Amino acid sequence: MRPSSPRPRRRAAPLLALLTALFSAGALRAETVDRFVLASGGVVLEVSTPASGIMRIRMGRGKLPEDASWAVSAATRAARHPLHVSRNREALQLRGAGISARINHRTLQTEVLDGNGKVLLADLAGRSALSATGGFRLRGKLAGADHVFGLGDKTGTFDRKGGAYTMWNSDAYKFNQATDPLYKSIPFFMAVGDRGQAYGVFLDNTWRSTFDFGKTERDVLAISAEGGPVDYYVMSGPAPKDVLQQYARLTGTAPLPPQWALGFQQSKWSYKTDAEVRAIAQRLRAERLPADVIYMDIDYQDRARPFTVNRNAFSDVRQLASDLRAQGLRLVLITDPHIANAPGQGYAAYDSGAAQDVFLKLPDGKYYSGDVWPGASVFPDFSRAKARRWWGDLYAGFLADGVAGFWNDMNEPSIFNVASKTMPLDVVHRIESDDFAPRSTSHAELHNVYGQLNSRATYEGVSRLQPDLRPFVLTRATYAGGQRYAATWTGDNASSWQHLKMGIHQLLNLGMSGFSFAGNDVGGYAGEHPSPELLTRWFQIGAFTPLFRAHAETNRPAQEPWVGDATHVEIRRRFIEERYRLMPYFYAAAEENSRSGIPMLRPVFLNIPQVLAKGDRLGGTEDQFMLGNDLLVAPSPTPESPGDYKVELPAKGWYDYWTGRRLAGDSESLTPDIARLPIYVRPGAIIPKQPLVQSTTATPEGALELHIYPGPDCAGEIYADDGTSLGYQRGAYLRQRIRCEESPTGVRVVFEQRKATGSRGGKRWRFMSMDQKSMLQQRVAWFWLRIWPAGRLMSKDRNRQAVMANSSSFRSEKVLGA
Ligand code: GLC
């Protein structure tokens, strides 16, 4: 066999036998190819490099599996970087850009190596991984993997090393630390060594699968699936951030969310009448609790039927949405995938779905019907482009009413009253989508991707119906790549201290699995009602997580931020306010994520891999998290305890966020105080903060503050655009990089050349060139730059350098303030 010719689009399977013979006869020369196919013992292996530092390996019995995916686009899969092939007695060497492989041509055992020839993943199984029954079990040495992260929001331990996990999307009401599987399947993980070197592995397979990180066999990685392709990618890093960028290269990044979705979101199952929703809105405003979103859960619907409204309780959704909008609040509605099985009742979603034949059927051709909130329900076949289009069009009415976003729940799919908690495996799905060959398949193949396709249908529908607005979709279940369509939350958690702590780890692992825009139900969803202390702590921490949504189940006492005594309410208010002041920082972090795949919320080692070398508990950072590059949040590792705790910082000289004080050492002993959440700032940070607003829709009145914390690599960024449209994709945004330099005479602040200009609504934005030079010479540890809101140019102050900014939210002038 010899390598295939350059850029083949389709495999020539009948040629395999001949090629194998040629190879055995030694016809191979050292040569460069764009993919490499090898066969042995009836098993075919293919290696390609879709991008620098990424190797894709596929294997099948007799022929390669179908080259199609719900996670990796056709264009990404078709891209090929050259592979240089050479051979010795035992093995084949394939060298690609930043990654290489060594294959035993008899056993097909494949070692993947980084650009320097260091082994990342040493496959032990080779062709014997394939079982005769259709499944497979890959085994490999977990080389250099002191830690393992990823696999979405699975619980267990934060570091997955030594654990084993199952991928099978499951409704996991009131889950706990030991519950597995949970709602999502994201078969991607990152192995990280104590010196910060990292690599990633993504198995693109939607079937029920398991990942064992040395639990059964020490230091052995075992990945098995009940069916579907052996199709995996190894990403060579070498830094943890590189791995996440490589994974984003494969599965895409999340779109930039509308800015309002970064505001505080208030939800409950359920606000039961429009009067109740209005009362919540009024209370938020009266209590001066900043907020941007109110959710309506299933009870707004007529008999829990998706895409209906109970007109007795919600007489006029359009009026409601518009009145809320006038108060700076947006409405998000739940729309579950189960359509009530209600023929002949004038239920439009059922009738149109039946007319278009988009509901799933059993092998006998009858609809599959399962019980969920509306009772007997039918389910769209989201793996057909046609069904997704039908689904997306169902949103036209709500969008016309001014509803701003949609919540796709129960899409594991969850089914009541059956032991499996989901639909039977023999339900027949039809695949007619993307570059898949049209075919029918069983629920066993589509189960784990059902939620992702549901949210995709919603996202694509809303995009189609409102082409210039950014959709906001929230999904509970999903699969790898689903970050392109929806934000997510960790499902039905419980109101406990343990969940508060575990929730952070879930969000961090989600962020390291492509899903940055995620949150936990603030206050806890189920179980005992939270104590005032627990609720307050949850608001404090929630305020620093990407999706900040308070939600709780039905029939519980109220859990809104104003519940409890005035001291607690005041603390919660201060933290919600702090989030709104930090909105420019949050927004820049969301924008960075949308470009790079680096999550907003990060374990400390992601920014500073050196902390791992400090030893235990990730160098003492295990219960901390970072927001963006610069803010380190350090809640107590035992949040329920009043006992002192020690905060380990990555280095000396970090700043206290609340006081600006610079720490001499690299650790601090703290006594917990319910009014405080310890936050530290990286030396070298430049953090933009804006004046307090009650909603992101309000224009901040007053200065944008640039808080400058001198130190090494001193840099920050302002990113601004109109917050809701796709104009930024056409260049209508402002990106201002700022640097600072310390010198013996003081601190110098440098505004770099702005990156983009644009026009919006025909009106040309005027971005003046920045003063590139010295801004202020002053001996202070940290200080502000202010941008005053003014639509006009202001002249330079006598003592200060003035610079102009001009964007949708800041038509203003920047002046250095002492
Ligand atoms: C599910 C959701 C929860 C929601 C409830 C009713 O349990 O996870 O958030 O409130 O359904 O729709």
TrEMBL record:
Protein transport in keyword set: no
Keyword Ribosomal protein attributed: no
Span of domain Glycosyl hydrolase family 31 C-terminal: 597-687
GO terms, biological process: carbohydrate metabolic process
CDD domains xrefs: GH31_glucosidase_II_MalA, GH31_N
Keywords: Glycosidase, Hydrolase, Signal
InterPro entries reported for this sequence: DUF5110, Gal_mutarotase_sf_dom, GH, Glyco_hydro_31_AS, Glyco_hydro_31_C, Glyco_hydro_31_N_dom, Glyco_hydro_31_TIM, Glyco_hydro_b
All copies of domain Glycoside hydrolase family 31 N-terminal, residue ranges: 45-212
PROSITE patterns xref list: GLYCOSYL_HYDROL_F31_1 (PS00129)
Gene3D superfamilies: Glycosidases, glycosyl hydrolase (family 31), Golgi alpha-mannosidase II
Domain DUF5110 span(s) in chain numbering: 704-757
Example of a GO MF term: carbohydrate binding
Domain spans labelled Glycoside hydrolase family 31 TIM barrel: 255-588
Signal peptide (from-to): 1-29
A Pfam family it matches: DUF5110
Family of the protein in this entry: Belongs to the glycosyl hydrolase 31 family.
Entry protein name: DUF5110 domain-containing protein
